[in-house]
Amino acid sequence: MNFFWKIVLFFVAIRYGFFEVVFPRVSQWAVNSPDLLPAPAAAMSMYTWLMMVAIAIYILSSEERIADFMTPIHQFLKPQTAAAKKGMQIVVLAAIPLFGGWSYFDVNSPKMVSPTAVRIQHPTMPGSFEGMKNPLRDPTEEQVEEFIAEQKELAEEAAEDEEMEPVTVPNNIEDGRIALVSKWTEEGAALYAVNCRPCHGMQADGVGPMAVGWRLQPANFRDPGTIATIVEEYAFWRVSKGGPGLPSASTPWDSAMPIWDLDLSENERWKILLGEYFLAGVGPRQTEKLE
Amino acid sequence: MQAKINRIDNSKYVVRSIFLLLFLGLAGAVWGQELIELPEYRAFPIIGSRVAVWIAAEVHLMFAAFVLGVPMFAVIVELIGVLTKQERYDKMSKEFTKLLAIAMSTTAIWGGILLFLLLTLYPRFMNYLSEVFLPTLWIYPFLFFLEAFTLYIYYYGWERMKSGKSKWFHLYLGLQLNIVGTVLLLVANAWATFMMTPGGVDMKTGALMNIWEVIDNFAWWPINIHRLIANVTFGGAIVAAYAAFKFLHSSTDEDKAHYDWMGYVGNMIAIWSFLVLPFAGYWLMRELYQYDQTMGITMMGGFLSWLWIIQAVLISSLFLASNYYLWLGMERIDGGERYQKYIKYMLSVLLLCVWVWATPHSLVVSPEEVAVMGGVHHPVIGIFGVMSAKMTAVNFMILTSAIGFMFYRRANKVATVSYAMPLNLLQAGIFAGVGAYVLYLGVDGYFVEPSIRVNKYSVWQVLAVLFAIISTTVIDVFLFKNSESLGKFHWGKMPQRSQYILIFIAVTFTWLMGLMGYARSAIRQHWHVYKVMEDTSVDAFAPTLGFASNVVSVCVLIFLGLVMFIFWLGSLADPKKKETPVVAEMNR
Question: Are residues B311 and B180 in the same domain?
């Protein structure tokens, strides 16, 4: 096989063989999807163009390769005497402008096609949320002492009541702090289960029982590009203000996220975030230390 | 009685006159006050104030980058000429400087245009900025004079200070040119970075508290370093484009050889300094995150995030183009054909990396595609949309380019030392080991906290790649000691398309610089000085990326048009008589 046909074969194998046949099936298998999962058209177009540029670079990187690539084309374009070759020449030379014309028509003719959308991953947070800290991640000494006192009381009750489970009382402030944050995290996970799980799923992976009902799948918090990459006050803003609270720039947002500050107190929303991060197995992005 | 009445009447007139005078005086004072009260903004016709200032600032910055970047390597090349006693280096250095002398005036003109536009269109803002930066505004013109006159003495005194002790003084002038130029850069950067990350002022009232903190604000040093390196890159690319322009117009082998070599050197300077640039940019972004998380998130994940995809495509194009130029360059070296067979592998790695780097996290999708994928994230290629994948791809591209350059260096050499095989294996082992390490960190980066990925993994990846580049270069020194030569570098025997690649690289760098400048400025959003002085003009919104790209493209066209004019002006000064042949010297 000469160099020209090797190049053509390579292009067809990658563009159509890999991207059209192999890739959608591998993607389907990888995430156990009911549908084939091809790459979106915009991404495919980019990949194809970049591959064509790379192929052009390869051909043009030496005089020898240019000659190897062009020789069959020159041979083909020479006047042919054999009827079969002449016929093929006419077919190909006619097909090229026809293909060009058809492509132009196809691109420019009016069609009923939904517009593609460019989505912004993280819209700009309003200034009023900047610098907020989750107060439940670092409880005050008074809160911890109060909690230890409560635990002591509960422990005493548990000692007297056989039906109650035994209660552990923290030995010191540090243990108390850890136990209190754990308690709030559990409460947050419970609030999450009531309010967020239907869409975002109990594993925080975006596949809750109601997720299929939405055109745009709810956010997968296990994806490192979602809550793990943002500071916690950002997540607090999203929970508090929901889809309607997104900035008017870069619309449409296509978000069905409710405005939770209408139904949940500030404390509950911070608790939910504790639970949400815990369930997703990630932590919020830490503010880099200002040097 | 009549006299009394007259007196009363007169006094009445006097009182009335006094009141009238007082009224007129007060009215005059009020009117006068209105006259001297500055308007907040003025409008520039047709294109608007913001676009007018944008174009003036961008074109000024492009010229400034050129006139500050080129002296750095002009002096180094001159020094190499002195140390190696090779005339060709001196000739090239002088040619670099010739471009500088013309570009300096253009830079000053655009600086003047920018200043006048700012003063007339944004008087309140400029009033505030001059209040805060007063001492620097006095120092700046003095520095500019010093820079301009040093440059003119450096250029016009070239022939007079060509040999002996005066040559060393000439080199000193070159050094002074660089030092003053760098100080100028630092001063101007203080103004620009203060607008992004202000310090040293009361954040509520904007009142000046400490001038040094105003200058040494949070983004100052990251921008200083970033721009300093970028200027070298940019200067190298423009000089290479100039050489390409001259190559394409050359009719003699001697000129072709000279400009081929000049283009090669300019491009090498551009590419090697460019390899460090992503690391400097990374540091800058990290510092911005430190200063203000929202600023960082807006830049990387917010409305400016699509810029990074455009940037990825542009930088990938630069990598592909510069590698392609090197591969073409091997055609002019005797023995270079031995490495042709590796091109397809290097190109495959580069293509894979480009695919990964240019894949956004949130894809451009139609509603039908959303329905199939269940969102804007493809479950497989969406993985490539996050930082771990991008950093790994960039590092692999740098490693591949380093391997390509290693082949280029050894194209006409055969190692003769007895330990050649172990050293070759060691180099291969270093590249393979570093590649595996970079890949490992890239994969593991998905499973660690962002702070570890940002502050540790990315840094380790970069250090590993730098280690590979430096160690293999050092090994080359021992490997090719007393090496056998397979032939010469046939300077000038380059296909014309290679020269268009040099021009493409320069255009891409220019465009990239403009686009990233937009990102840096747009991050302030509706603030003149971030969170200190609000923009209350009609332009107090971030322009769309499409609009910004168009404005940047216009800036690039203006800049390149003027650069072409400068190239032409430079050619007017070319001596008609042919200079001493240097081809033989170059081919040694």
Answer: yes
Burial of B576 (0-12, 13-18, 19+ CB in 10 A): exposed
Is the Cβ of A114 closer than 8 Å to some Cβ of chain B? yes
Mutation pick from A25, A66, A116 vs chain B, by most beta carbons of B within 10 Å, is A116
Cβ of residue A109 closer than 8 Å to a chain B Cβ: no
Helix, strand, coil distribution of chain B in percent, nearest 5: 75, 0, 20
What letter would DSSP give residue B577? Answer: S
Same domain, yes or no: B317 and B392:
no
Q: Is B361 among the domain residues?
A: yes
Give the count of domains, chain B. Answer: 2
Chain B residues touching A211 at Cβ < 8 A:
374
Do the domain assignments include residue B95?
A: yes
DSSP assignment letter at B337: G
Query: Is B316 in Cβ contact with A50 (below 8 Å)?
Result: yes
Q: What is the DSSP string of A38-94?
A: PPPHHHHHHHHHHHHHHHHHHHTT-HHHHHHHHHHHHHHHSPP-SHHHHHHHHHHHH
Contact B258, B204 (CB under 8 A): no
**Residue to substitute from A3, A22, A50, interface B, most B β-carbons within 10 A:** A50
Structural tokens at position A96: 């090229």
Nearest of B482, B501, B330 to residue B418 by alpha carbon: B482
Last residue of a domain, one of B396, B431, B465: B465
Interface predicted TM-score (ipTM) of this complex, two decimals: 0.82
| DSSP H or E segment with residue B529 | strand B527-529
CA distance A65 to A56: 11
The answer to whether residue B504 is domain-embedded is yes
Would B10 be classed as within a structural domain?
no
Q: Residue A104 to residues A16, A44, A107: CA-CA distances in angstroms? A: 21, 19, 5
B494 CA to centre of own chain: 28
Note if the bond before A252 is cis, omega within 30 degrees: yes
Following CA atoms B175, B180, B184, B190 in sequence, which dihedral angle do they give, to the nearest 10 degrees? 90
- Picking from A30, A115, A220, A53, the residue whose alpha carbon sits closest to that of residue B355 is A53
Domain that holds residue B378: 335-409+422-465
Query: B116 and B103: one domain?
Result: yes
- In chain B, what residues touch A120 (CB-CB under 8 Å)? 301-303, 305-306, 362
Partners of B442 on chain A (C-beta within 8 Å) are none
Q: Do A46 and B358 touch (CB under 8 A)?
A: yes
Per-residue pLDDT of chain A (291 residues; tens, 9 = 90+): 899 999 999 999 999 999 999 999 999 998 888 889 999 888 999 999 999 999 999 999 999 999 999 999 999 988 888 889 899 999 999 999 999 999 999 989 988 877 776 777 788 888 788 888 999 999 999 999 999 999 999 999 888 888 888 888 898 999 999 999 999 999 999 999 999 999 999 999 988 999 888 877 888 898 877 898 888 999 999 999 998 988 876 666 778 899 999 999 999 999 999 999 999 998 888 766 644
Instruction: Assess whether B300 and B343 both reside in one domain.
Output: no
- Which of B465, B499, B530 is the last residue before a domain boundary? B465
The string of DSSP letters for B400-462 reads: HHHHHHHHHHTTTEE--STTHHHHHHHHHHHHHHHHHHHHHHHHHGGGS-HHHIIIIIHHHHH
d(CA B244, CA B254): 14
Are the Cβ atoms of B370 and A216 closer than 8 angstroms? yes
> Does one domain contain both B313 and B391?
no
- The DSSP element (H or E) to which B485 belongs, if any, is strand B484-485
Query: B581 and B452: one domain?
Result: no
Of chain A, the end-to-end C-alpha distance in Å amounts to 63
Same-domain status, B224 and B239: yes
- B323 and B363 assigned to the same domain: no
Residue written as tokens 């006068």? B32
Q: Does A120 touch chain B (CB under 8 A)?
A: yes
Residue B77: both structure tokens together:
């090349």
